[in-house]
Design brief:
Elements (H helix, E strand, L loop, with lengths): L11 H9 L17 E4 L5 E3 L1 H16 L7 E5 L2 H14 L2 E4 L20 E4 L6 H9 L4 E5 L10 E4 L5 H19 L20 H19 L1 H6 L12 H8 L2 H7 L12
Helix pairs in contact: 2-5, 3-5
Length: 273
């Protein structure tokens, strides 16, 4: 890779994660300005991104963000559902300002608003959904970084990261990679070790599925199969006390007494001869 230093090159594990989350797949439509990032087109018409260019743009965006002195001057926005959790986690670990959900018009231009902010860098998840903050950022001369699909418009976008910004797993992974690269460039985490934050923290989770899992766990425990039922029940690990054979024999009859009355040496009783 010639566009970035050797120390910033993607590892085999990073490329494997991008492939596993389908970050390289686009749509059947392709914008004319996104053709440069497309590697080829599949037989079903889906465009495939060049992951080397995707990684180059992630590193470039991370270098721009790391150059900002105050982390709060970086604004991460996601109006889509899949990117809201990732934006909040990104702001938590990098110190940026997160706007998850609906973007209030005039946040960058109307100084009378209570939520008025003046960021130095804007990062959006989808240029099609986040068109309002991109337009206001162009009015205020704010550089914009965007995760772009194959059919995303690139108007007023300064750094376009070609990727799949429609998938649930892909969005979480891309925000995770960007946050990790920013922290590495700032010197917060070393580059030769793995980040202790898992990718799952950035991936969107459906609240209905979480409630269903919790309900199943409660019903499973109510039936007596939970860990608390095992702790309160019979202990299989402790050995049981041995049975009292002497007392049982006494209660059922004296077996030894019957044996003592018989004389096995007396052959006259049997008449064997």
């Amino acid at each position: 890779m010639s566009q970035v230093p050797d120390c910033l090159n993607a590892t085999q594990d990073d490329i494997a994660k991008l492939l596993a989350c389908d970050s390289h797949t686009g749509s059947t439509n392709c914008d004319k300005e996104m053709v440069r990032y497309v590697f080829k087109r599949r037989g079903d018409g889906v465009h495939i991104f060049n992951l080397l260019k995707t990684w180059e743009k992630i590193v470039l965006a991370a270098r721009v963000i790391a150059a900002v002195e105050n982390p709060l001057d970086v604004c991460a926005i996601s109006a889509g559902t899949y990117g809201q959790r990732a934006v909040l986690k990104y702001a938590k670990y990098t110190g940026a300002t997160a706007i998850a959900g609906r973007f209030t018009p005039g946040t960058f231009t109307n100084q009378i608003q209570k939520k008025f902010v003046e960021p130095r860098v804007l990062v959006v998840t989808d240029p099609a959904l986040d068109h309002q903050p991109i337009r206001e950022a162009s009015y205020a001369n704010i550089p914009t970084i965007a995760f772009c699909h194959s059919d995303s418009p690139l108007h007023h976008v300064d750094i376009a990261i070609p990727c799949n910004n429609k998938g649930q797993l892909s969005i979480g992974l891309l925000w995770w990679l960007l946050a990790r690269e920013v922290l590495r460039l700032r010197g917060t985490i070393p580059r030769n070790t793995e980040w202790d934050v898992m990718v799952d923290m950035f991936i969107y989770r459906n609240p209905e599925e979480q409630e269903k899992e919790q309900t199943e766990e409660v019903s499973f425990a109510a039936q007596g199969f939970g860990p608390e039922a095992i702790e309160g029940g019979e202990s299989w690990g402790e050995p049981s006390a041995p049975a009292e054979w002497d007392s049982g024999a006494t209660a059922g009859g004296d077996w030894g007494a019957d044996a003592s009355n018989e004389n096995w040496a007396d052959t006259s009783a049997g008449g064997w001869e």
